[in-house]
Structure formats: C-alpha cells, structure tokens
C-alpha cells in the first residue's frame, strides 16, 4: 500500500510480503556496515566501531545496557534510531530489541 492510498475494509494493516526484520540481528557486523553505507545520519552520530559495540551490547541476552560509559548508550542508540528512515528494516529490528531489553531490565 503506497503512502497516498487509503486503508480499505478487509485489508491488512501490515505488509506480509516483507521478511521479518529481526533476522537482521543475526549478523551485527553486516547490519552496522549496511547502516553506515546507506544512512548518512548514522555516520554523524557514531563511528563504525562504536556502533558495532553498541549493537553487540544490545544483543547480549540477559545483560542490561551500560549507561556508565561516557555518553549514554541508550541516548546514543535512540539518536541513531531516530536518524533512520521509517521504512528501515534495521530501525524496526533495533527498536524492537531495545524495547525488549529495556522491558527486561525493569
């Protein structure tokens, strides 16, 4: 459904033809390389090494995000996520993982 099309009764809100964005989290190095290549807003916020460390920290099961290192890890991640376009599968996957991690830390 394009941006200008209106929802019609009986249609699904979700586009089921797209792959599950969580599969992007299987290879953090590739995810970071794709983010740095495709989205200029990310390059201005973090270096590839910092972004890779951030993604790997986010993917550690059962470990809370460490906000004691310099700039807040959570703030940096949220800044990066907001720099990505709404249509970005990486944004969806990382946002979902961040929410799951924060919920698990409660």
The proportion of residues forming helix, as a percent range, comes to 40-55%
Distance between the termini: 37 Å
Number of helices: 5
Poorly predicted segments: none
| Elements, N to C (H/E) | HHHHH
Task: Please report which band the strand proportion falls in: under 5%, 5-15%, 15-25%, 25-35%, 35-45% or over 45%.
Answer: under 5%
Query: What's the number of structural domains?
Result: 1
Radius of gyration computed on alpha carbons: 15 Å
Average pLDDT score:
74
How would you describe the overall organization of this protein?
It is a single chain. The chain is mostly helical. The chain has one domain (24-104). Helices cover 51% and strands 0% of the residues. The chain has 5 helices and no strands. Helix 1 (28-38) crosses helix 3. This is Linoleate diol synthase. Residues 1-25 are annotated as: Disordered.
Topology:
Blueprint: H1 28-38, H2 40-43, H3 48-59, H4 73-83, H5 89-104
Helix pairs in contact: 1-3
Notable characteristics:
single chain, 106 residues, mainly alpha, 51% helix, Linoleate diol synthase
């Amino acid at each position: 459904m394009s941006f200008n099309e209106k929802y019609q009764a009986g249609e699904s809100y979700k586009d089921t033809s797209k792959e599950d964005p969580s599969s992007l989290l299987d290879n953090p190095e590739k995810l970071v390389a794709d983010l740095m290549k495709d989205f200029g807003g990310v390059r201005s916020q973090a270096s590839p090494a910092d972004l890779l460390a951030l993604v790997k920290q986010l993917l550690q099961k059962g470990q809370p995000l460490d906000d004691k290192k310099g700039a807040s890890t959570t703030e940096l991640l949220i800044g990066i996520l907001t720099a990505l376009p709404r249509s970005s599968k990486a944004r969806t996957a990382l946002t979902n993982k961040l929410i799951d991690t924060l919920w698990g830390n409660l």
